């Protein structure tokens, strides 16, 4: 199911939009503050973001800038009262893909969402993250706290596999099989230990990356 994050502080509007979009097959998460949106985006990436221009804790335009620095290809549609031309220009300059003026008809919003997603596709699987770690699988790019981290192919594949299974323990056997044996390369168990040690060092010993003793490894968001 295609996921949408809707950043909107007006509960009446957000619930109406949420119910309408869910009737058309979308999974919608409503976030009432910019801080909540940042936290949610840091945990998982949706297919599209709807951003209200005026939020209680800041401008949707600033959130748009923040998103673009981290998820360059994540589609953004912003919502602005009366289609103020200054807001529209500023929004596009900071990376928005489209806009809808308030008040809007629900079918108009739906058609804009469908049009944007036809152009971009569902890119939610392209971006994976956990804590300060973010990965762009299309570009094979890894960042820690916004800073690019160069990884070897085996380090990258190890991190990617753990991110794909975030919140679940991945056994050492599964990691060895998926990362090395799939390429026809036999390696011993120590290879995984050494690779993990290098990966942890490059990622500044992240707290979200945990060892499950005698079993494997686990990536999970802070609680």
CATH class of the largest domain: Alpha Beta
Beta-strand residue percentage:
25-35%
Q: What's the gyration radius in Å?
A: 20 Å
Name the helicity range: 40-55%
How does the major sheet shape up?
Answer: 5 strands, parallel
Instruction: Look at the structure and name the CATH superfamily of the largest domain.
Output: Response regulator
Number of domains: 2
Q: Structural class of the helix and strand makeup?
A: alpha/beta
What would the principal axes of the Cα set say about the shape? elongated
Number of strands: 14
Average pLDDT value? Answer: 89
The number of helical runs is 8
Strand order of the largest sheet: 2-1-3-6-7
Low-confidence stretches: none
CATH topology grouping of the largest domain: Rossmann fold
Order of helices and strands: EHEHEEEHEHEHEEEEHEHHEE
- Going by CATH, the architecture of the largest domain would be 3-Layer(aba) Sandwich
Describe the structure.
By secondary structure, the chain is α/β, with parallel strands linked by helices. The protein folds into two domains: 2-122, 3-Layer(aba) Sandwich (Rossmann fold), CATH 3.40.50.2300; 148-219, Orthogonal Bundle (Arc Repressor Mutant, subunit A), CATH 1.10.10.10. It is 41% helix and 25% strand. The protein contains eight helices and 14 strands. The protein has helices at 11-23, 34-43, 60-70, 85-93, 106-120, 153-164, 172-179, 189-202, and strands spanning 2-7, 26-31, 48-52, 54-55, 58-59, 76-81, 98-102, 127-130, 133-136, 141-144, 147-148, 170-171, 209-212, 216-219. It is elongated and about 60 Å long. The relative contact order is 0.11. The mean pLDDT is 89.
């Amino acid at each position: 199911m295609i996921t949408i994050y809707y950043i909107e502080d007006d509960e009446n509007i957000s619930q109406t939009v949420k119910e309408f979009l869910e009737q058309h097959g979308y999974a919608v998460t409503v976030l009432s503050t910019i801080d909540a949106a940042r936290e949610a985006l840091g945990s998982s990436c949706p297919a599209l973001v709807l951003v209200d221009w005026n939020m209680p804790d800041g401008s949707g335009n600033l959130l748009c800038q923040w998103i673009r620095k981290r998820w360059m290809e994540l589609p953004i549609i912003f919502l602005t009262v009366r289609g103020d031309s200054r807001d529209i220009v500023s929004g596009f300059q900071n990376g928005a893909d489209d806009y809808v003026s308030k008040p809007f008809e629900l079918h108009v919003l739906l058609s804009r969402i469908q049009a944007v997603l036809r152009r971009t596709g569902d890119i939610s699987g392209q971006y994976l993250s956990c804590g300060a770690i973010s990965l762009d699988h299309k570009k094979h790019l890894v960042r820690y706290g916004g800073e690019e981290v160069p990884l070897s192919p085996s380090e990258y594949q190890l991190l990617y596999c753990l991110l794909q299974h975030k919140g679940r323990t991945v056994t050492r056997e599964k990691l060895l099989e998926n990362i090395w044996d799939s390429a026809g390369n036999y390696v011993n168990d120590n290879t995984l230990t050494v690779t993990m040690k290098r990966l942890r060092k490059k990622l500044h010993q992240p707290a979200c990356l945990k060892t499950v003793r005698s079993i494997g490894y686990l990536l999970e968001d802070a609680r």
